[in-house]
Amino acid sequence: MARLAVLTSGGDAPGMNAAIRALTRSGLVRGHDIFGIRHGYTGLIAGDVMPLHARAVGGIINRGGTILGTTRCQALKSQQGQRAAVAVLHDHRIDALFVIGGNGSQAGALALAEHGIRVLGISSTIDNDLTGADPSIGVMTALDVVVEAIDRLRTTASAFGRAFLVEVMGRHSGYLALLSGIAGGAEMIVLPEHDVEPECLLARLHELRRERRSHAIVVVAEGAVWNADRLADYFKEHNDGESFETRVTKLGHVQRGGVPGVFDRILATRLGSAAIEAFERGDGHVLLGHLEGRIRMTDLDQVNTQAKAFPEDLHTLAQTLAR
Fold first, then answer.
1. Contact by Cβ (8 Å): 136, 157
2. pLDDT tens-digit readout, 258-278
């Protein structure tokens, strides 16, 4: 019998609710008391804690977002904020805290672990840049949204003979841009990990026009040095009539929203249940993630100090197929 708490933090990802549901029901079946913390670490510091029961998490597996709410909490970065969070957990006699989120969320989890709190992380970020998970909760659904948008934009791009610059999320990671570009058949992909000069991209657009291509799709990660707006300005300034007229479409938070796909529902359910099993084995100070087809655990200090390797093989593949 234990008192366990769960929170969601940082950017929401489709499948978070499925993880909350699985964790709650798996814990209740084993006789534990489960508590939800509203609004992430901000709610934790404020003591916004509520009990969760089986019916409270009914009907949420197909819902995007998070029923617990989420924030990006600057206060937890300070010792004062961390001590306040620890005090709330002690006051509620919480035996372990489960943190569903990405890099910033797991950095907060590590900070609390260093204060003596037993913490288990669950990987959830559409950027897929979290060490110890591949993919994280939400990635596959976000990719489906992006590729559907590319498919739709290709129709109008072809009709008007234009090049569309499709900007997707990824401040520091080009994973979404890379995978959606491959799946969407993009003519070019612009990533933070591989800087490309705008004159090279413009030359490629000229080449496509000379080949009598009807349109072009350029997928751009928002964190690239030359983001969609900068590229559009450059193309407009240097367009001599030999290239395509360009348009910018920013998908923004559309990528986070909506109904989670089957893969993310199953992944989140597996991770939520596995988190309870890990607690009962005595594990802590770890992140649970999907790796090579299995649920694995990675030490939180490794998660927060080791950068995830960029899939160079997929980048090479994208370059090959774009010809």
1. no
2. 899 999 999 999 999 999 999
